[in-house]
Design a protein that fits this description.
The chain has 394 residues and is α+β, with helices and mostly antiparallel strands. It contains 11 helices and 13 strands. The protein has 4 domains: 76 residues; 77 residues, 2-Layer Sandwich (Beta-Lactamase), CATH 3.30.450; 80 residues, Helix Hairpins (Orthogonal Bundle), CATH 1.10.287; 148 residues, Histidine kinase-like ATPase, C-terminal domain (Heat Shock Protein 90, 2-Layer Sandwich), CATH 3.30.565.10. The strands form 3 sheets. The protein has a 6-stranded antiparallel sheet with strand order 2-1-6-5-4-3, with helices on both faces. Strand 5 and strand 6 form a beta hairpin.
Length: 394
């Protein structure tokens, strides 16, 4: 309490003891000090409230801007998703469809949201001979699945590769036809030589004075030349067609057994060891069995021509990831780099009696099944042909 207040209290009609007046003055002083501190605190609180209000407004503005940017991004992504020519299907953790763009609905047909992906695969998609591709009606789709770690879901991408596959097949066919055009002169020579020999032998058969033994020998030679012509024509047709018609599923062991029965006696007659190893027991293949057997037979015959008596030829098969690999190895004379570079060219051969189409046909069969052929060789070190085809799609 100030002095005037004390004086007023002392001059009032109520008597105040001297000690009480001091206590009252002290109380008024403490109250005045607390009031001042409270006013200062209130003023500071008002300043903090003003600052927090400004910060909150700024934060709200930033959040509003971020929300608007995310909304615009979501709109752009939605438009992009709808405009994509590829199908996009979003799956949740249980494998049900959460979202599908128009392209996916068009490729798979009907409403997809809420349906199970496994049911869609079983009802709409059919496995093709090419890994990673499926058939949906008359369309061929490349299917890629990517995991979503954050949502425990998956994204399925569907690319329509029907036209691409058609163009690829057409381009390969055009290349073969172009190669056939370039080989016309060589083909005429190849056909003319055995045909001339067959005509010569057949002309000798017209001699009525020809002994019976000579007649039989000449007839056999005539038939042999005609069979050579037939084989050349068949090889040419197979090379020109370049496609595998009809597919079946069969065990690799059965194919190896068939090749062993066909080739083992021939190798033994020439004093060559022939060993077959099945490194993929129980594995199966899906394809045209006759074409695959013919292609591998061509590789074995090629090895047989490169090995002298006392040599060795191995036929092995094993699984390498998503492929089945057949290996034909020999310890023959081998090949140089120039020969390897032309090895698969049609009509290229190092043998006088060869047609030069066997290895070209073998590579065509491998490619028609979605595989290929590789060769490793050097002069004097033998050769190894690796013939690979994809495993059947489960």
């Amino acid at each position: 309490m100030n002095a005037s207040a004390v004086s007023a209290a002392q001059s009032s009609s109520v008597p105040v003891a001297p000690g009480e007046a001091e206590h009252l003055a002290e109380a008024f002083r403490i109250f005045s000090q607390a009031s001042e501190e409270l006013a200062a605190a209130y003023s500071e609180l008002q300043g903090q409230v003003a600052r927090l209000t400004e910060e909150l407004a700024a934060a709200n503005g930033a959040l509003r801007q971020e929300y608007q940017e995310k909304a615009a991004l979501t709109e752009r992504l939605t438009l992009l998703l709808d405009a994509l020519p590829a199908g996009v299907v979003v799956l949740d953790g249980s494998g049900c469809v959460l979202q599908a763009n128009p392209a996916a609905r068009q490729l798979l047909g009907g409403a997809l949201v809420g349906a199970g992906w496994s049911a869609i695969e079983a009802g709409v998609l059919a496995a093709s001979e090419t890994p990673g591709e499926c058939l949906a009606g008359d369309r061929r789709l490349a299917v890629a699945v990517t995991a979503l770690d954050s949502a425990r879901g998956r994204i399925v991408l569907l690319h329509d590769v029907t036209e691409t596959q058609h163009l690829k097949t057409q381009a390969e066919r055009n290349q073969r036809l172009a190669a056939m055009g370039e080989m016309a002169a060589q083909l005429a020579h190849q056909l003319r030589t055995p045909l001339a020999a067959a005509l010569l032998y057949a002309g000798n058969l017209e001699n009525a004075e020809l002994p019976l033994g000579s007649r039989v020998s000449i007839a056999q030679k005539t038939v042999e030349r005609l069979k050579h012509l037939e084989r050349l024509i068949q090889d040419m047709l197979m090379f020109a067609r370049g496609e595998v018609l009809g597919r079946e599923t069969f065990l690799i062991a059965d194919l190896l057994s068939e090749l062993a029965q066909t080739f083992e006696a021939l190798a033994r007659s020439r004093g060559i060891a022939f060993l077959v190893t099945d490194g993929a027991p129980g594995e199966a293949l899906s394809g045209h069995r006759k074409s695959l057997a013919g292609a591998l037979t061509n590789l074995l015959e090629n090895a047989l021509q490169a090995v002298e008596a006392g040599g060795r030829i191995d036929l092995d098969a094993w699984r390498d990831g998503l492929q089945i690999v057949f290996a034909v190895r020999d310890n023959g004379r081998g090949m140089d780099a120039q020969t390897i570079a032309r090895l698969f060219d049609p009509f290229f051969t190092t043998r006088a009696e060869g047609t030069g189409l066997g290895l070209s046909i073998a590579r065509g069969v491998a490619r028609a099944h979605g595989g290929g052929i590789e060769v490793v060789s050097s002069p004097g070190a033998g050769a190894e042909f690796l013939f690979s085809v994809p495993c059947p799609t489960p």
